[in-house]
Amino acid sequence: MLSQPIRPALQPLAADPGAVTVRRLWKAMTPDERTAGITASLNDDPEGWVKTATRAAVATALRFRAQTVAQFPKSKLVSEAARLPIDDAQLLGGFLVDLHLGHRRPMMKAFLDGLAIENDDGRIDSEKTQVPPQDDAAVAHAADALAARYPLDEVVTYFLTLLLQDAATWSGVQPWLAAHAE
Asked: For the whole model, what pTM was predicted?
């Protein structure tokens, strides 16, 4: 067992990963993690759907007109989106994925390399690489190695995000998560 505990907000999610939703995971994240995910999403799609959806979600949560929120500087849009309850699961899912792609790629690469899954700096090219469901023992070994190198909360958040993206392929992280939630 690892010496670092999982923070209390993530513990129930790790204990029952099958019940995790994107909204529950988002709520369990720290404000800094939410800010990093939103920033990465907006940087990846500066004038597209993410910006429009983020503005709409913030306007709804604040009960402001969309035109008012459209005038917010990026820093205010990000800080408001990070603190407000956003209900758009697709948008939150994008923020979660972009948190990892934008800020945690070395961790993603290390895990995929530990499972001998072809990747480009932590990104799997789904057109070239079919990832079969992973063996629980192999996942546990790769997960232990990852948790020895990176903060446990980040590893747990990454694994929960993987389960939200493709529970069948990554089901092997469930026993590992449950064991570390105790």
From this structure: 0.92
